[in-house]
Amino acid sequence: MVRTAGGKALPSSSISTRDDERAPLSERLRPRTLDDLVGQSELVGPNGLLRHLIESDRVPSMLLWGPPGTGKTTIARMIAEYTRGPFKELSGSINNVSDLREAFERAKNSRALTGQRTILFVDEIHRLNRAQQDLFLPHVERGTFILIGATTENPSFRVCSALLSRCRVFTLSRLTKDDIRQILERGIRLIEQKQPLDHDADALDHLALMSDGDARVAAQALQLAVDIARSTGGRVDKAMVEASFKKSHLLYDQAGEEHYNLASAMIKSMRGSDASAAMYWMGRMLASGEDPLFIARRMVIFASEDIGMADSQALMLANQTFQACQILGRPECDYALSHCAIYLAEAPKSIRVKNALMAIRSVVENEESWPVPFHLRNAPTQLMKSMGYGVNYKYPPDYDWKEDQQYLPVQLQGRRFVEPPSTSNAANANANTDSASNE
Q: Domain ends where: 221, 247, 273?
């Protein structure tokens, strides 16, 4: 059955098997229809909101936010095919202001001549600076074109608020190992259309694991493994898969084990106050191509979870380190990361914040939502005041902060969720201070 969108015939379901065998496997495997897209079922599955908008030809300007290789570019191209509108692709890392203005003008002329709105796809839109992003505002506001921006970064931080407010944000999930395996099996079938391929089933499982949910990485590594196997007369097995990762600089297994092992080793070294070990594991991650923002995020979490009230400056430094990584990039931000890693490792440790958070979560998730006591309630209207809201509240400064007043719900009075500072924390702080002074 042929579906329609806005009265237009939609493309029939078929996986792209592009005739040009010289094209990368990742491009030849790119699906042409929503039914063929692997993953993202919440968005483009039978009941997905984005699918409904596409098929009803009511696509808004949007931001597609998700990890690499999850289908952002594919979805943008599908929207163009389904709506039959002109499609223009730009890159935030390559194109400049003149390129943007030219694309805007062409979209404006196309709308005037044909009535159709151009699909303007901007990959890595977060790489455009704020001034460049502001250029989109009047055109998105007037509907000159439909903007589809793709980003791997949180748009709340990397896209200006004015543009963000004019776009619908759709979050794409990281593809699962089974999703990647399904894509790789399609790749094998496509490759075997030319000639049979000798391969091990567990090689595909291993490749799916190492690809960390990135379909593009998986397809590139598979293609390289196949090329190696055919040139040497071998078979595609686990060793061949790992060799393909080495040759394409993808050996750092961001899919799981080695990625998280190194991160875990760095965190546990900082927790154990071993600055040298923390630096070693962090250096390993950086040398393997780890995103410095990933490391900085772990440091921000660590500063509150493992240091907390023992040294509140740690959280400030960790946050400043994250900002430095955003501003500088590598390799310059390595100094800030090293500074922070050493500081966090040598800082006194306390888990009072973590324990308090865990205790509160347990109460909130497992007990009733008790009402706010009347004396703590906001009373902006006379009616609320007449109902007793805010009555008998004692303003602490009027009592020299010595007022006798309950702040928890009646049902929780007497419960303590935040532990008092312990002597062990003080001893920890003294020990770290003594250690630093002996250097």
A: 247
Name the helix (H) or strand (E) containing 427: helix 423-437
Supply the pLDDT for residue 187: 87
Q: Residues 100, 135: contact at Cβ < 8 Å? A: yes
SS3 123: strand
pTM, two decimals, is 0.56
pLDDT (tens digit per residue) in 6-42 = 444 444 444 444 445 677 888 888 888 888 888 888 8
Whether residues 164 and 236 share a domain: the answer is no
Measure the CA–CA gap between 372 and 380, rounded to whole angstroms: 16
**Residues 84 and 57 occupy one common structural domain:** yes
Q: Whole-angstrom Cα distance, residue 205 to residue 218?
A: 11
- Mention every residue, 6+ apart, whose C-beta is less than 8 A from residue 152: 65, 66, 67, 68, 124, 126
Residues 350 and 277 reside in one and the same domain? yes
Domain containing 230 equals: 177-247
Cα-to-chain-centroid distance, residue 230: 37
pLDDT tens digit string along 213-258?
Answer: 888 888 888 888 888 877 787 778 887 787 776 544 444 555 445 6
12: exposed, middle or buried (Cβ count in 10 Å: 0-12, 13-18, 19+): exposed
Instruction: Give the number of domains in the chain.
Output: 3
Residue 199 exposure: Cα atoms within 13 Å on the Cβ side: 28
